[in-house]
Amino acid sequence: MVGVASIAVGALFLARPALSPHALVLLTGISALVIGAAETFLAFRARYAASG
Known about the structure:
The chain is mostly helical. The chain has a domain at 19-52. It is built from 2 helices and no strands. The chain has helices at residues 2-15, 20-51. The longest helix has 32 residues, at 20-51. The mean pLDDT is 84.
């Protein structure tokens, strides 16, 4: 998911260099959401697996 966002933002950099700062903020936000959701999901999964 983050890889797809990186490709999209890279294409945006090439097409419109003036939007680069906005695209960096967008990519950082998407990355944080995806990583945070995955870590939360895995933490709950590990907790339930440990409690049996």
